[in-house]
Design a protein that fits this description.
Blueprint lengths: L9 H11 L19 H12 L8
Protein backbone atom coordinates (compact mmCIF):
# COMPACT_ATOMS: atom_id res chain seq x y z
CA UNK A 1 0.00 0.00 0.00
CA UNK A 2 1.36 3.42 -0.94
CA UNK A 3 1.63 6.50 1.16
CA UNK A 4 -1.56 8.48 1.65
CA UNK A 5 -1.65 11.75 -0.19
CA UNK A 6 -2.33 15.02 1.56
CA UNK A 7 -5.39 16.89 0.33
CA UNK A 8 -5.14 20.66 0.15
CA UNK A 9 -7.80 23.10 -0.97
CA UNK A 10 -7.20 25.96 -3.35
CA UNK A 11 -8.03 28.42 -0.55
CA UNK A 12 -5.41 26.89 1.75
CA UNK A 13 -2.80 26.98 -1.01
CA UNK A 14 -3.49 30.64 -1.73
CA UNK A 15 -3.33 31.54 1.98
CA UNK A 16 0.02 29.79 2.28
CA UNK A 17 1.28 31.61 -0.78
CA UNK A 18 0.15 34.99 0.60
CA UNK A 19 1.66 34.38 4.04
CA UNK A 20 5.03 33.25 2.72
CA UNK A 21 5.37 36.12 0.24
CA UNK A 22 7.71 38.89 1.48
CA UNK A 23 5.89 42.18 2.16
CA UNK A 24 7.14 45.76 2.01
CA UNK A 25 7.80 47.37 5.40
CA UNK A 26 4.59 49.43 5.48
CA UNK A 27 2.16 46.73 4.35
CA UNK A 28 -0.02 44.91 6.88
CA UNK A 29 -0.10 41.14 7.17
CA UNK A 30 -3.05 39.38 5.50
CA UNK A 31 -6.14 38.88 7.63
CA UNK A 32 -6.54 35.42 9.22
CA UNK A 33 -8.83 33.04 7.40
CA UNK A 34 -12.31 32.27 8.66
CA UNK A 35 -12.75 28.96 10.41
CA UNK A 36 -14.88 26.61 8.32
CA UNK A 37 -18.43 25.95 9.47
CA UNK A 38 -19.12 22.57 11.02
CA UNK A 39 -20.99 20.12 8.87
CA UNK A 40 -24.36 18.81 9.98
CA UNK A 41 -22.79 15.42 10.73
CA UNK A 42 -20.12 17.03 12.94
CA UNK A 43 -22.75 19.00 14.85
CA UNK A 44 -24.86 15.88 15.39
CA UNK A 45 -21.84 13.91 16.58
CA UNK A 46 -20.98 16.63 19.08
CA UNK A 47 -24.55 16.65 20.41
CA UNK A 48 -24.54 12.85 20.66
CA UNK A 49 -21.26 12.84 22.61
CA UNK A 50 -22.54 15.44 25.07
CA UNK A 51 -25.75 13.49 25.70
CA UNK A 52 -23.76 10.38 26.56
CA UNK A 53 -21.25 12.12 28.78
CA UNK A 54 -18.40 12.02 26.27
CA UNK A 55 -18.13 15.80 25.95
CA UNK A 56 -16.47 18.28 28.24
CA UNK A 57 -18.14 18.76 31.59
CA UNK A 58 -17.90 21.47 34.19
CA UNK A 59 -18.21 20.57 37.84
Amino acid sequence: MGQQSMRITVDAAMRTRDVSRPRPAGEDAPAPARTPKRSRAAKNERRRQNKRGGGSRTV
